[in-house]
Each structure stands twice: as C-alpha cells, then as structure tokens.
Amino acid sequence: MNGADDAKRGFYGPKVVALGGGHGLFASLSALRLMTHNVTAVVTVADDGGSSGRLRKEFGVLPPGDLRMALSALCDDGEWGQTWRDVLQHRFTSNGPMSGHALGNLLILALWEQMGDSVLALDWVGQLLGIKGRVLPMSPEPLEIEAIVDFGGPRAPIRGQVAVASTPGTVEHIGIVPENPPAQPEAVEAILDADWVIVGPGSWYTSVIPHFLVPKLREALCTTKARKALALNLNADKETKGMGAAAHIRSLRDHCPDLRFDIIVADPTSIDDIDGAERAATECGAQLLLRQVRMSDGSARHDPLRLAAAYRDAFTGIFGDVAGAE
Q: How many domains does the chain have?
C-alpha cells in the first residue's frame, strides 16, 4: 500500500466490498454508504424472474435487476440523486408487454447495447445517479442456479433462481451453470484491494452462496488480506425454511470450506440458539456480534442506521458484550 492509497482511504473511508443481490444487498449498501465512499458492490447475475428474466431471455444479457437495486442503494442524497433513483426504480404498469419492466433495467440494457461493455455502462449509470461507490457483476456472463432438493424422500435437481427460491422442498446443496464461470476481473481486483469484505444479508442459496461458486472470486475471497464480515438474515426465507442461524453459517462453509470470517453480525431476535450460533461462528474463525439491526417496527427489514452502527463497531473493533449485546 502506498501513500496515495493511504490518503484515499483516509479521505473517502475504508475500502469495502459488499457481495450479494436483491433487497439484502440493498440493505447492506444503504448502511455502508453512510460510512464510506469507497464501497464496491459485487452483484449476483443468476436472476431469471420478472423484468430481469424477460430481458435476459430476450437479449441474452446479464439480468439487470439486482445491479439496478445496488445502484439505487448507493445514489446521492441530493435532489438529483434521489430523483434519478426514483426514475431508475420506476416500474411500468399496463396491459401490454411493457408491464412489469423497471425503467432502470431498460436504461442499463440500452447502455450495454450502446457501449458493448457491461462495466463501463454501469459506471455511466453510477455517474448519472452520483453514487458513492461502484457496482460490478460477479461474472461477465449470466449464470443459472442448480440445486439438489429434498422433497421429503426423493431428491431431485431443480434449475433456475425462481424455482430454487420458491421450492416447497429443502435445498441441500447448490451449484451454478456453467460450472466454472469466469469472474468479473474488476470484482476480483476490488476484493484483493479491500480493507473489508461484507457477505450478506440476502437470499442465502440464490444471492449469497453463488459468489463462492465462481472459482476466481472464491480464490480472491480466501486469499485477500481484507477482514471479512458475514451479515445474517433477520428471518429464514422460503429457500432456507427451518434453518437456524448456525445452519445458515454452516451451509455457507459447506460450499466454501476454506473461507474464514472475522465477524458475524446478527440481530438478537434472529438467533434461535446463541450457543449454537457461537459455535458455528467459532468454526469459521469469527466472533458473533449481536446488534439490533432490525427496523423498529419489527418488520423483517434492516434499518440502515442500525446496520451502519453495527458495521462501524466491527470495523473499529468496539464490540462491548459481543455475544450478549442488545
């Protein structure tokens, strides 16, 4: 690290890379942008539903929806940024083929076609929004989720993000198709250069774990000198129904045994068994940091200010009563 790097970190804040997709990554980025302008979102590219799925199928492009959400989370607080954020998130409603499309998805698609470079196009959208950071796809090509699911006796493979996320069975293991896809080079570089890497929250099998199935990303995550934090979900979703906090942690380790964490952030109300969660955290080298990060209305949504405070404690090492804090 040279003096220029030190100065940049001091002025803009620590270099943080956040991995995930959808609403979980949106929550994490909404918190991180309050702490640093050096945040890079690395976004899953396996979505095959809704507007993203339709555009992916019709144009053969990366699904733009999770990328759009990440850009929106990082946009500037001023009138310009907030206005363009709302425009980006605007979804058409009609009786025709445009119904359900988000304008931001179409804007990203148009720039991809104009520029022929997915990363450059996303950087241009970021400039339009005045975002604090950068948004990158985890791979330059669209991927598919494939899961082995237990249906109460027979086990069967199912394919597709929507199918896996909505399966009535129990997901036992996931893979991606193609099996060894390339990583986005800028994403690998960002991870290797980071001070902190944040994993989660988000749909566990379809937004979080897929990052560890891309070989070059997995290698970067295991070898980077950055410290690593795992943010647990507030509730189990359909694809992880019946799984407690410890099971979530161990399922991630099952897919990437060499990955070690420093901190695991969780809301006390989301921990069904504190002793079990602490043991699972210890198994991957981490401390369990319990902080109230849920919205005050009790809904299953992260409060950006509370989550930012938890991340700040993790970054500065001010844990207090780590396992028992409320």
A: 1
H or E stretch at 254: helix 245-255
Distance CA 20, CA 11 (A): 26
Q: What is the pTM of this model?
A: 0.91
Please write the tens of the pLDDT for every residue from 111-162: 999 999 999 999 999 998 888 899 999 999 999 999 999 888 788 889 999 9
Let me know if residue 325 belongs to a domain. no
Q: How far is CA 219 from the centre of its chain?
A: 18
CA 259, 184, 215 angle in degrees (round to 5)? Answer: 35
Look at residue 209 and tell me if it is in a domain: yes
DSSP 98: T
Amino acid at 23: H
CB 75 within 8 A of CB 52: no
Amino acid at 150: D
Estimate the crossing angle of helix 103-115 against helix 50-59, to 10 degrees: 30
Cα(200)–Cα(187) distance, rounded to whole angstroms? 16
Is 241 a domain residue?
A: yes
